[in-house]
Amino acid sequence: MRRYFSSNYKNIMYTRDSEKHQGLRNAQLGAIHAIASFFTMNSKQAAITVMPTGSGKTAVLMVAPYLLGKNKVLVVTPSAMVRGQIADDFQELTTLCNANVFKASMKKPVVYEMLHKYNDEMIPIYEKSDVIVATPQCALSLSETDWAKKKITLVEVDEAHHTPAKTWQQILINTDKATHILFTATPFRLDCKEIKGEIVYDYPLSMAYRDGIFGEIQYIAVPDGGDTDLRIAKKAEEVLLADRDEGLEHYIMVRTDSKSSADVLERLYRENTSLNLKRIDSSMSNVKVKQYIQELKKHSIDGIICVDMLGEGFDFPNLKIAAVHAPHKSLAATLQFVGRFARTNAANIGKAKFIAVENEDLEIENNRLYAKDAIWQEMIIDMSEGKNQKEQANRRYYKGYQSLAGVVDEDRIPIQAITLNCHDRIYKVKGFNLEADFPEEFNVGTRIHRNKEDNTIIGIGLEYVSPLWMSAEFRINKVYTLYIIHYQKKLGLLHIYSQCHTEKIYDRLAEVFCEEYDKIPKFEMNRVLGYLNGFEIFNSGMVNRYSESGEAYRIMAGSDVSDSIDPSTGKMYSAGHVFCKATDISSGESENITIGYSSASKVWSSEYRNIPDYIQWVERLGEKITNSNIKVRTNTNYDYIPMAERLTEYPDNLFFADYAGTTYSSPPIIRSRSKPGNGYRLTDFSLTIKETSKTQVTIAILNTELSMTLTCDIQGKYSSEEADLYTRIGTEEYGLEDYFNDNPVLFRTLDESLITGSEIYKGNPDAISFDQKKIEDFDWDELNTDVGLEFGSSRFKGKVSIQDALEQHLKLDAQNTYILYDHGSGEIADYIAIQVQDNQVIVRLYHVKKMHSAKYNACMEDVYEVAGQAVKSTIWLRTKGKFTEKISSRHTVGHCKPVRGDFQECLRVLRDAGKRVTAFIVIVQPALSKSAKMTDKVQEVLAAASTYIKRAGKVQGLEIIGSK
Q1: Domain 772-963 maps to which CATH number in 3.40.1350, 1.10.357, 3.60.21, 2.60.120?
Q2: Strand, helix or coil for residue 746
Q3: What does the pLDDT look like over 665-697, one tens digit per residue?
Q4: E-strand spans in 358-455?
Q5: pTM of the model
Q6: CATH classification of 4-203 is 3.30.1050.10, yes or no?
Q7: Keywords of this protein's UniProt record, alphabetized (predicted)?
């Protein structure tokens, strides 16, 4: 076996470059010693060497096999052109001999430039070779052979930022017994895939500039407008000729992004400039490309027009002027491109110049490189070093994670590759347990990564689902779900990321990893808008504090919705969710961001981040949320909207409970486990408050078949000792308590306050009053009414129920074209009277309750429930379509029966687009008197009901049929 490299190790001379004689540069010496040091301690990991373009990594690549005493070396290059350059240099050791590392008389290695894929006939040549230089496809074919796996002892990869790509990665996997050294100027990728290995040396661009390896660069902006390609061409010609007049041997590269564009530019330069340029693209043969490169190096032409052909590894330091017709969009590609022109290893060359159209909107890593006044010398260095430092910091961060998954686990997912949308659910917690396991139903298995230093757990769930084109039982598609739990120890906050944004998921995770957990109230969540200015509010939600009809929750969307808000809006609504664009000034520098939050302790942004950046993001949110000194001002009309407060105790004047707007807009189907059969819409269940205390409210839902009692605590959490009723969200079963945790019931008070979840929107009790004169004094005796009987047959001979008396009264009015009876659970009202006029339809909803007390205007039981029903019924009058749909669905299930008129004809009238609907809500309660003294409590209830209904917007007002 040939031992060429180990036998010639003794010939290495570490001559330092100086003015007197050539030698190795600082960067090359540093890289060589770093590689040697690393491999005294490591044999399994790849060594990553980061050196800016033009700093001499080819010399380091050639010294490495001598340094490590290797036998067979495989060098992988990104292109055929670079392959030829390295093969020629290695064969003659030109660079190393010029640097006095070796004497020119030393025996040279046998180098084979692999032009074609592997075949067995070439084994004798491989056996005789010390170095094989190949492009990825050829290198892959060689690496798959038993010969390569046994004989190759060192693999060196040029431009190693390509290694995460499948072909490059497979080469390294196939040669896992060999030592790996990876060389790159940019140790990061746009797709965030990991370049596997240890960065052993990182020579910063600022030092390359200081050492004279990276030369001066200048951006020349061409004003936008007109024929920009022609203007760039003219400016490029002007700059090149001016440089040559100064005695500089400069040449030009015209950069574009497609072959068709290169064809157009070739004609444009030929017809409008004096420059002699040759076009190079991937459709040309390697012979033709080499011919043009030789013409360039022999100064026979002025430059080349290129479509990404000479971006990596190409060494021609006289290439000093770039006419950029199509800028790169990524930092890595930009740095590679700039490095081609910033080389200094030639005589009679000066500053590199980049000519492009000014573009204020194009940002690369948040830097406007193509702005009119951009200073590339500083910007490129800062961007390069900032990105490299960030890459190394991320690598250190990821090392902190310990994983249960094996390295060859089929379901192992590299967390370095995770890029997630910014979404955070936040809790205040106690008793965090990093070692807790994910609940079994999450199916995380061994795909758990824990970082003790950072108090972070990453779990990746796996389930099998059926494709859209197969029936449900064939679950053959793998679907992975990401969960991240981060504990911000200093502040006692738990941050949860879940792809599924349901309360059940968040609460289950908080329950497993913490002993106690609470939501963050909205007035604290609002602090995420602190240290921001220049607000543009794209989407805003506002909670209607007064009525569930018309708008329970107003959502506004647009370029800046704050202009639509005025002081009167703030009197009706309180702040809900918000999503906006703003400028973050917290770091001392201005950064444009998007951010939104909701009352469910959730924050989100339109950004995507890797894991360490995401953790930094959520920690900044936590610091804002817990900072009581932050007073948010958007300096827009949004500031008119008051903020919710934390609910510290339930008030003693709860008026009624109602479903959330989301329940009315998309009512779930409720089913029973104990009584399987038909499902019922939740909105067809009556909802009542059964019992209240300072710390909890007990509610009941009920229809003719099913019922359930639930309790809501001060944190807005619902629970029940019953587990009978459930609904489905997708394929998942959710108990009714889980549904209400996601869609909390609304509790309204007599003083116009609104409670939802753990927050209270306070009303204005001073604005509430009730005019007793508005009660209609009905003569119940005239119709022989048993005022103690709401419906059914009276025990008193000749007496009728209140409903029967009301029906007679309604029938006596000839203007009532249609009368519908809808008594029962989930009713719209007991009676619905509809009057048809020329241009409008007048609708009245009648809610009936019996008289419990012997005295008028004295008993809360007489008024409390019926007033709440009256207010809640306004939801069905939000639109004519909603009202029509509701009475139609009620009729279908046996309710909403016509007492007068044909039902289908009634529907046609209501659907008539030419008639608007005018609506009134009517309370029918004989216990209410127009003349008797009214207790303060009854007056308060009627005032609240009247105010809520009047402010509903879609209803004309409240009417009361009582007694004299």
Answers
A1: 3.40.1350
A2: strand
A3: 889 999 999 988 888 999 889 899 999 999 999
A4: 401-403, 419-430, 448-451
A5: 0.64
A6: no
A7: ATP-binding, Helicase, Hydrolase, Nucleotide-binding
